[in-house]
Specification:
This protein is mainly alpha-helical. The chain has one domain. It is 63% helix and 0% strand. It has four helices and no strands. Helix 2 packs antiparallel against helix 3. The longest helix is centred in the N-terminal third of the chain and has 22 residues.
């Protein structure tokens, strides 16, 4: 079963890694003990949106609400592209016009 999902798992891990690095640069730290606005958004985004989209990409899409979509496959693909794009480029909203950290 897992052999068919190697590319999807690799894509999810790469995007997760890039997003984590970029968010940590923007927030300064992703330490749960030092929560700021950017790290809070990171945790909420990753726990809910990114994880849910990754599960749908891996085939765990038997939820009843997905049955109400008119064009299910196209809607899921557009959602995956948008969520994965936001995971990578959301940091730039916080860093636009200023230096986010010393390592940037």
């Amino acid at each position: 079963m897992i052999e068919g999902y190697i590319l999807e798992i690799l894509l999810i891990l790469v995007i997760f890694g890039i997003s984590t690095i970029l968010f940590s640069k923007a927030a300064g730290t992703l330490n749960p003990g030092k929560v700021n606005v950017i790290s809070y958004i990171y945790y909420i985004f990753m726990l809910q949106t990114f994880a849910g989209t990754a599960l749908i990409l891996l085939g765990f899409d038997k939820h009843y609400t997905l049955g109400y979509l008119l064009n299910r496959d196209k809607s899921c693909m557009i959602t995956e592209v948008v969520v994965f794009g936001i995971a990578i480029f959301y940091r730039h909203l916080f860093c636009f016009g200023r230096k986010c950290s010393e390592s940037t």
